[in-house]
Each structure stands twice: as structure tokens, then as C-alpha cells.
Amino acid sequence: MMYSEGQIQGIFILTAIPSFSMTTVKGGYEPRYKIMMRLPEHLLEPVGRSLTAMNIHHVMIRERGRRVDSIIIRRRFDILRVCDIMPNSPTKSKSWRKFKRVMEMVRNGEHLEEDSKYRFEMILNENENEETNPSSR
Predict the structure, then answer these.
(1) What is the DSSP code (8-state) at residue 68?
(2) Burial 75-111 (b: 16+ CB within 10 A, else e)
(3) Distances from the Cα of 116 to the Cαs of 21, 25, 43, in angstroms?
(4) What is the pTM of this model?
(5) Higher confidence at residue 120 or residue 17?
(6) % helix / strand / coil in the chain, to the nearest 5?
(7) DSSP string over 10-53
(8) Which of 33, 62, 108, 134 keeps 20 to 30 A from 68, CA to CA?
(9) Which helix (H) or strand (E) element contains residue 6?
């Protein structure tokens, strides 16, 4: 069994957890990002096949303390592809809006600029309430 792109969107909305950070490297800073999906065991295989069919590279890892594998997407191109198919609707993880914004900056090459660490941190440290509740301004 494989899932359509719309079904995969729904699975991402309900299960995917994005993470983004700036890591110190020899020449300055480098963005690190990933998307993790913790799925029930019966969904792992079909979701994995569907992601492969959509040309989204992923790995399955066993987390400590869990009996079921998790799917992790780490490659920039694949994460950008997931961001493209993710709708701007409420998701399980409240950090998707910020994640999509910073990944758009990565797509545009803004992570290579000198003050990029500061700009990324500004977005990551924004109050989530301001973004989700415009009437509070």
C-alpha cells in the first residue's frame, strides 16, 4: 500500500516534528535541520514507500526506549520538498510556521550571509502567540 501526496500531507500534519538550529563550525555557523515522524508500526512501511516514490530520502532509526522505528528526513532538498507540500494549516507541532520560514531563508541562500545567525535566532525566538493570534497585537 502507498499513500497519495494528499494523504502524506495529512500524515505530516499529524505526526511530523521539525527541528532547526544553528551550530558553530570552523568557519562560523551552519544550519542543522531535520523532520522526525513517530508513526505507529503499521504505517512505517507504507509511508516509507510513499516517501521514496515522492523522491524524498529518509532513514528509519530506532529511538532509545521505543519499540518502533521513527522516520527522519535530513537532506536539504528533501526537507524543502516537504515544506513545499505542507499546507499552511494547523499542525501537531506548533513550530512548522517558523520552520518553513527559516527553511525558505536557507533556500534563498540567506544562511550564507554574515548576520544570518542573528536573523535565524530572531525568527526562532519569536513568541508563537504573535504568529498564531494576530488580534493580540
Answers:
(1) S
(2) eeebbebbbeebeeeebebeebbbbbbbbebbeeeeb
(3) 12, 14, 38
(4) 0.80
(5) 17
(6) 50, 20, 30
(7) HHHHHHEEEEEEEEEETTEEEEEEEEEE---HHHHHHHHHHHHH
(8) 33
(9) helix 5-15
pLDDT tens-digit series, residues 37-86: 988 889 999 999 999 999 999 999 887 777 778 899 999 999 999 999 88
Tell which residue, 66, 82, 78, 80, has the closest CA to residue 16: 82
Element (H, E) at 100: helix 96-107
Model pLDDT, residue 137? 38
Rounded mean pLDDT of 19-28?
Answer: 81
pLDDT band (50, 70, 90) for residue 128? low
Q: What is the total residue count of the chain?
A: 137
Find the Cα–Cα–Cα–Cα dihedral 105, 14, 95, 109, rounded to 10°.
-10
Q: Are 38 and 25 in contact (CB under 8 A)?
A: no
Assigned C-alpha cell, 122: 530572531
Nine-digit cell string for 103? 527553511
Residue in the structure block whose three cell numbers are 519499540: 67
For residue 51, the model assigns a pLDDT of: 94
